[in-house]
DNA sequence: TGATTATATGTCGCACCAACATATGCTCGA
DNA sequence: TCGAGCATATGTTGGTGCGACATATAATCA
């Protein structure tokens, strides 16, 4: 799931600027399973344009900053469909939160409480967003994917709420032992 | 969660070679929320040695390849505890699988079936691994983390099993329309 | 009026992932 | 018993891409 394929996937459902592609990646329906940055998107769009997989149209409004609106070409659509039908890479999950939880012995209980409460708040917001997004989406796969996300986030949220206090209680044991020395 | 902190975290629970650190990252108890590669670990260990956060002991057995066994220093332990108590970065989840599912219109049903069945098989193995790991681990945070992983993978597994056929049924609609043109 | 936010494009340094190169010992089937 | 393949082990390299920075304009708001 490199920047190239991500750009093609988003452009396949409508034209967009680099700014909008990034925004959809981190805020829109794609946001909970893709992630990217300007430093990846802009070079990717340049290369895709060179290769004829996307087209770029300059939109100039007097007195406004110029926009570069990208749209997918037939060749690009073929390349996208081809990429989708290739064997896929493994999902990636990296969690500084779980590393902190696993090493809770060395973490100050107050810090641990802050960390887990922030995580709970984050999941709550994500769940609300996913519920709201369910209605206004016409792609058949999108609904399936949103329901999947809801199911997983829900399980995650419930575990954290139920086991919050237990984690905080375990925190700091090694640290206080060290301080006592 | 850079390579530095990861090395310190693993070395904090016992000495290890670069090879073993990588193995624990992708196979051990850490495996479902960290990920790394040799290209990150070996340079990180060199830098940590230079900075005095870890120590390196050459273990030479005649007729065997030399091993470099790393262990954490008191200074390294301090740095690790300090890193744990800093504000943490966001969790990262990237899923080529969900991107494929979301765009299932453009995916051949046979390919979709293969992709989801592989994912189900993967989750089944992970769940079995997590159950087995539950017993033989003495860190207090590890049990909490393993239960969290089980809860989330379980939710994910059940959703996939229940909604497998629905996803495959939705697949390929756009592709066959295109082929018919 | 000035501060901040949203839109918009882009660059740069450093980190790091995937693949390759290299070397040895062990196991197991032909 | 001999070679093939696998596990152990260390490292390099090329390209990708993340995070931070630079720049610019319009709108909003105190």
TrEMBL record, chains A, B:
Domain Transcription regulator PadR N-terminal: 8-80
InterPro entries xrefs: Tscrpt_reg_PadR_N (IPR005149), WH-like_DNA-bd_sf (IPR036388), WH_DNA-bd_sf (IPR036390)
PANTHER family: NEGATIVE TRANSCRIPTION REGULATOR PADR (PTHR43252:SF6), TRANSCRIPTIONAL REGULATOR YQJI (PTHR43252)
Name the record gives this protein: PadR family transcriptional regulator
């Amino acid at each position: 799931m490199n920047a190239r394929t991500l750009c093609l996937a988003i452009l396949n459902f409508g034209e967009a600027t680099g700014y909008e592609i990034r925004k959809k990646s981190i805020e829109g329906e794609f946001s909970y399973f893709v992630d990217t940055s300007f430093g990846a998107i802009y070079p990717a769009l340049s290369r895709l344009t060179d290769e004829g997989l996307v087209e770029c149209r300059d939109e100039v409004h007097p007195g406004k900053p110029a926009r570069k609106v990208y749209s997918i070409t037939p060749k690009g659509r073929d390349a996208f469909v081809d990429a989708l039908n290739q064997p896929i890479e493994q999902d990636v999950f990296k969690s500084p939160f779980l590393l902190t939880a696993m090493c809770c012995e060395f973490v100050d209980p107050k810090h641990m409480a802050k960390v887990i409460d922030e995580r709970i708040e984050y999941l709550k917001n994500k769940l609300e967003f996913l519920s709201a997004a369910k209605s206004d989406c016409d792609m058949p796969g999108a609904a399936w994917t949103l329901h999947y996300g809801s199911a997983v986030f829900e399980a995650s949220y419930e575990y954290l709420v139920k086991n919050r206090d237990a984690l905080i209680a375990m925190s700091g044991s090694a640290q206080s032992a060290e301080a006592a020395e």
